[in-house]
Write a structure and sequence with these properties.
alpha+beta, 26% helix, 29% strand
Length: 266
């Protein structure tokens, strides 16, 4: 893909976000598309959002479970950018029509107290840089069709990364914990939709340890000259399958002693 291709793809995705109308698969439009191309499209979206006055509040990590990696035939996670207009209050309401096909995932969020970065970042570095961890919900949306209606071809990881890793929103629970207060591998969530249990999972589903997920992010960012900044929120990756959230959905994610998170969709 050329730089012009990256810019055009980003513009199309931003238009889809504004109009709530999905675009076709970029991987079909550009069969030569690769990982670097996908992140270039994401970075073009990032630059445009900053120009429009948005602020970066953190990062999300996706494709951390083996099941999702196998499904997309990829052996590494991906990442996306959290912007200030994506934050919702615990127990809040997502306005009707805000998203195209919203879904949620339960995750452990890291909130950072100091900058951390570099290709040789270690687990100890991440722990030292973390202010606290909290229960969280990530809201997903897709500005790209999941499946091409003509060919039946499913979107690829390149489509997803281009689409800011399908990121759309974040909800933090009220609880705050020291990063070493729990064995995060054993922190789990029971996720309820409209009062019925939908999904369960454990933190170990995230690269065997959510801390290692943040290590991966910091090392990946170093390849692009970036680093995690103080105050940023890092969504470490989901340990449940995405839960569909059509209009009228009420979500409650119960993390036991770790806390809980609620979000509602008008």
């Amino acid at each position: 893909m050329t730089p012009e291709d990256h810019t055009r793809a980003a513009a199309d995705l931003l238009q889809a976000e504004r109009t709530r109308e999905q675009i076709g698969l970029l991987s079909l439009r550009h069969p030569e598309m690769g990982m670097d191309d996908a992140y270039e499209v994401q970075n073009a979206i990032y630059r445009q959002k900053l120009a429009e006055g948005r602020k970066v509040i953190g990062w999300k990590i996706g494709l951390t479970s083996k099941a999702m990696q196998y499904a997309l035939n990829i052996d590494i996670p991906d990442s996306g950018i959290l912007f200030d207009d994506m934050a919702f209050e615990h127990g809040g309401m997502v306005p009707a029509g805000r998203y195209i096909q919203p879904r949620i995932e339960a995750e452990i969020a890291f909130v950072m107290k100091s900058a951390v970065g570099g290709e040789n970042v270690t687990r100890d570095d991440i722990i030292a840089a973390t202010d606290y961890v909290a229960p969280s919900i990530e809201i997903l949306d897709t500005r790209i069709q999941r499946v091409d209606p003509a060919s039946g071809k499913a979107r690829t990881v390149f489509d997803t990364i281009s689409d800011n890793a399908a990121n759309a929103g974040i909800v933090l629970g009220a609880e705050r914990h020291a990063v070493d207060a729990f064995d995060l591998r054993w922190v789990g969530a029971l996720t309820f939709r409209n009062g019925e249990i939908e999904e369960t999972g454990l933190g170990a589903g995230v690269l065997n340890d959510p801390v290692e997920s943040v290590v991966w992010l910091a090392r990946r960012m170093a390849q692009y000259g970036q680093s995690i900044e103080p105050g940023q929120i890092i969504l470490s990756g989901s340990f449940i399958r995405p839960v569909e959230c059509p209009s009228g959905t009420e979500i409650h994610a119960e993390f036991g002693p770790f806390g809980s998170v609620d979000i509602n969709f008008a």
